[in-house]
Structure formats: structure tokens, C-alpha cells
Amino acid sequence: MAESWSFLDTSEPNFRPLVVIELAKGTKKETVEWFTERIVDKKSNGGAQLLVKPLVTENGDETIYLVGASHFRLLLGAEAVGLVKECNDNSMRTFTYSSRKTFKDFADDNHSFLTMAECQYIIKHELENLRAKDEKMIPGYPQAKLYPGKSIVRRLLTSGILVQIFPLHDREELKKLRYTWYGRVKVGYQPLDEVRCYFGETIALYFGFLEYFTFALLPMAVIGIPYYVFAWEDYDKYVMFATFNLLWSTAILEVWKRICAIMTYHWGTLLMKRQFEEPRPGFHGVLGVNPVTGREEPVYSSVKRQFRIYLVSLPFVCLCLYFSLYVMMIYFDLEQWALDYHAENGSTFSSVMLFVPSIIYAVVIEIMNRIYRYAAEFLTSWENHRLESSYQNHLILKVLV
Question: Belongs to which family (predicted)?
Fold first, then answer.
């Protein structure tokens, strides 16, 4: 990369806020000054090299801060996070600032080259990767301890100093998207590219799947109407319908994989380099040097992580699975008891009692799901996964079980 982070110009004549930072009321002035200084400081000094402006409320409080970045800074950030863009030869390649002229629709004055979602992702990435250098604590809060490599944003969140970080809406772009998406009566496909530019690839894929799945269910619905209208007693017809549903559900899943691959390739997420993925904000460890990238980042023993997974998380998940099966057996016993009670009495009260086991079981399931989800998230964070993808995979595995 020809341009260095150290010489990055952080000035921007037309400041465009993209991300909002909300601090707790009564946050000490020295803490605010230290945090904002780390945000605007140079990358070589451990900062994020972004732009920050306070939003003064009516009562004079400065708890809301708007974060943006210069166009040059966003382009270098796009290279740092490994964004994939379309080139002039219609191929998809990882964006680099040195070869920026080879990418389609790029111009030095074209600030729409990066979508709003990509710009916000870059800023969020830089904020989450602000890590402590020599600080032992957050200034003004001795109880909020820091160590080299600790995520500053995460410590501020857990200490209650930082309330939340969220992306900012663009009302004009939102109005345009609302009109093209659902603001007019027109039967057609959703503007998934526009949704992706504004909300990001994850949200666009979600609505793309809903659209595809809705159309994919139409053949099953059309064929199933006669089965619903006519009370056929020929069970061979139901076997044929069940066989069709089985084959069709397999077909639509495979077709969706192809459509999903087409969209993700077109949007550049299929080719993103996961092997050089940055450490997740919650990853902690002694500050060291990554032997692959040469960057300074936290280092944590993989042996300790494996011990935590197989000696703590795995037994806990198996115990929860056994407990859930045990509760299900209790439900079956209660259901059988209600049926026997209704057979003996045949009263209105006994007929009402038939629904009690299902109601109790539904309530117990909801409570157990909430407790287990909290425990799964806690254990997955405690396992201290380096990559966000690894963290999500282990969390999804626990939840699916």
C-alpha cells in the first residue's frame, strides 16, 4: 500500500455522520476526552483515525457523539477489512487503494463508491478494534481495568460508561428505499441490491430468502388445495403428496444454495478473506504479534480454548439435553394422566384439564430456552474464540442442539 496510515488526513470539509456513540450520563470529562482522543488519533499511535463531533442536547449535555471518516480514510479502511468489489473486467477482487482505478465506478470524487452499509461497517470495525496499549485502567474509573490488547469499547460497555453504538439512518436514502420497496402498489421482485446498499448483505439475504421461499411454496400450496377441500379417504393420494413435498423441499433447498451463491458473489461477500479475519472485539489475551499478518494483536492459547470447550461446554450441553428429554418425559406422563382423568370423569373440568399439560410444557420450554440461550452465549464468550465466524459457529451449534 503506497499511502501510509500515519499520513492519513483526518480533516473532512463536509462531515457525514455514520455511526452514533452514546455515553452514560455523568461520564467524567477526562474519560470522554481520552476516548475521543483515541478515536481521532493516528493508527500508528493505536487510534482509529476517525472523525468525531459531539451532539449537544437542549440541556447542554454531551453524551451523544457522531462518528464519521474522510473519503480517503474509508478507502483505506475498505482495504483493511478486505472488502471485495467489482473490477472493470467484471471480475470480483479484494479492494486495494493502490489499484483503485481498476475498480468499476471508482472516481476520486465519487463518494458513493462505497455503500452506506460498507462505510458503517468499516467505522464499526475500527471502533471495535480499538485496543489498550499501556493503559492500566480507563481514566476516571480505576475499577475499569485495562491491559495491553484489551478491547476498549468492550470494557466501556461492560463498565456501563458506553451505553450503545449504532449506525445512523439517512432519511433521504431511506425515503427512496421505502418508495421502491413497498411504497407503491406493484407486483414484482424486491430491490435487493438497494436493500443491500443501505442495510448490508445480511439483511438483504434475509429478505431474498423470504422472497424465494414464498415463490417456492406456491406449487406445494396449489397442489395441496384439493387435499384440503376434498376429504379423500384414499391414503395413496396423501402418500403421493407427501412424496412430492419431500422431493420439492430438497429441490428448493439446493436451488436456494445456488441463488445464494450468485447473490453473495455479486455482492462480494463470497470471496472475502476469512483467513485474515480480524480478532473479534470480545477476544482477549496477552498482546503479541500475529505470525501470519505481522500485526500486533491479542494472543491466547488454543489448548486452553479446547479444554474449555470439551471439559466444560460439551458436558454442560449434554446435561441440558438430558434435562430437556427428562422434562419431555414428564410432559408425556402428565398428558397421559389428563387423558385418564378425563376418561374417568368426562366433565367440563376434566376436558379443560386436557390442555393444562400442553400449557405448562409451553411455559417451561420458553423459560428453559431463555436460560439456555443465555448460558450458551456466556459459555461461547468464555471459550474466547479469536474470530467472529468461529464464535458464531460454536454458538449456533449449541443453540441447534
Answer: Belongs to the anoctamin family.
